[in-house]
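pasting for ref. prot 1 ->
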Amino acid sequence: MKNISDLHKIFIIGGGAGGLELATKLGHKLGKKKKAEITLVDCNRTHIWKPLLHEVAAGSLDSSDDEVSYMAHAHWNNFNFRLGRMDSLNREKREISLAPTLDDEGNEYIPRRNFNYDTLVIAVGSITNHFDIPGVEEHCKFLDTRDEADRFHQYLLRKYTAAHTQKEPLREGQLHIAIAGAGATGVELSAELYEASKQLVKFGLSNISAERDVKITIIEAADKILPALPDRISNKTVAALAKLNIEVMTGQRVNKATNEGFYTESGKFIPSEIKVWAAGIKAPDFLSNIDGLETSRNNQLVVKTTLQTTWDDNIFAFGDCAACPMPGTNGIVPPRAQAAHQQASLLVKSMKKRLAGKPLPDYRYVDYGSLVNLSRYSTVGSLMGNLAGKISGNVMIEGIIARLVYESLYKMHQLAINGPMRVFLSAIADVLTRKAKPRMKLH
């Protein structure tokens, strides 16, 4: 048996949906059999599925209930975990460097560390792109991480509680929520925040009227919401939002944010003291031209269809941080959870072939459709022919069927990392405890 120091070292940077799935599967396929040493690096101690962060922000999901401990998960699944944030790369030495880790007071408790790799897989996801618009970074909330979602939830509770207890009339825009960006995150967040306002009034903040005092507005630069999705989904979603009195403003590009609200290029002012920026994404800034690797204008690492970076075959990238071509088109694979899941599955095969010295498979994106969930009020979407059966085109779904399919997407992620037994036990526990806690996290 090989000494562990002689094993092929695979480092995975980023424990998001794709990174954690890849580390878990490689731990079972290669780590357990001592065919490779698998190490996952992330700057957080726990994982939560990023598409759920808008629910954490609104309080409809307690992040502590659904988090996965990286240390425990690594122990159970035959890979290593290292807490840290990669900030530099030396391709000649095949070495990554992790920045020092600081505590809440700014004190260093983990020094800078360097690690050598044989294969490096970068899966650091994406962050919100504020496009250097004046005031956005200073006055808007972002939902890129679990910490940001948790902080927004606390911020929301403070804003509502202050409004409930103050003696003077509410200021204009005090409980108005403006969301810049009408992609899936912005649209789904608006419905969750509408439900949150109803729940807060129900549980005691009775001086506030959800209908009179709370106003939610979505602002989108494109001429429709959900611009990347079919018109049918967009139109259905607009109709559903209208029933919740959520205002939709399309064709309006924000050019300034202040403490009081948003200004648009057309001269409109949207008063709002609670502002969320969800308009556009980019890969983390540290990837921009990292040690000479080719990157896109959004900092994404440019990769071949094998998911290897264009200028270094020892480095792979996938998920939102990778610009992967779609053969037959001039476009790249869209930054969606289903793409990261598909790519993680492909890379499991790729790593086995790489160790055996065989040619690597190419990635082909398969679109299984799109779903938009509006809290407990509605779910709309479409299933592509690949998922809906042997049909042409796609099938429009909504209501309970769409809701069940939407929930199954998260179950698929849980199955990929936890296996069927733990997912089953978790589902039973959720059913048993559902009636014992409020619909919304109130603390």
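and prot 2 ->
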Amino acid sequence: MRRMVSGALVALTLILLLGSPARAQDEDFEPGQDNHLSWVSYDEAVSQAKTKYKPVMLYFYGDEGKDLCRLAETKIFKKSSLKTQAKKFAVVKLSSATEEKLTDKFSVPPGEFTIILTNFQLKEITKITSEKDLKKLSTFMKKAYKENSNQSKTLKKVADYYKKAMKYKDAKRVRDCVKILEAIAALRGKVDSPYIKKADDYLKQLEKAGAAALSEAEGLINQAESSLRQAQRHGSRHFRQEYLNNAQQKLSLIAQNYPVQSLMKRRTNAQARLAQISAEYQRLIQQEQEQDQDP
């Protein structure tokens, strides 16, 4: 019995002096030492994202988030499903304690654990900061990869459609050109493309020129209305038909040369005013004819 007690005391003493294997392993762990994934530098990841349209996984590690870093590096990154997903990404590990520019850029607290999944333009798709989400990292990566693929395809289509729009422009097919450019401009904020800005700029030029032309047309419509009132007081011969004709011609040119959606309501209202003036003028003529026919 004494031997058993003595042996237990020796074992307890060794545990207290050396610590348990799990505790020793815990103290030895240093975040950022993982080698289970094919890590690349941040600059290399940016290059792969730009040239190969790859999504990016940014793993920020630090002592403040040591528990989550340990879970990621000793369990999550070891999983075969995670490794398969990671091959589709440019994966980067960064110290959240020292990489100040990048922690500021991606809003990561210094020293904390954070994983950020981005598209090929380094736009955040998912941010992981909790154990619950970390355990679902593989699922988040699948979704991010799919979203990135859709965005890259959209970007390529934007370039192709813009070139097609410019061909329509050169062929004087303005309506077809504008229709495509407005579809491109609607993607503003969803993907970053120089063609979206070019589409916006061209549409703004058309809108400005079209608005000026509409102001001229509205001036002609005002003249036609004034002429109609004069005719209603003094007879249809005082109506200036050329005002009506010139306004109608101007609106037709606007519809042909500036078919942008932003001007549609204003153009429709102007056309309605013209139709009303024409209808009232025709009623005036009919009234006069009926009066002439009375005995």
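The first strand starts at residue 56 and ends at 61.
Residues 8-25 have pLDDT under 50 and may be disordered.
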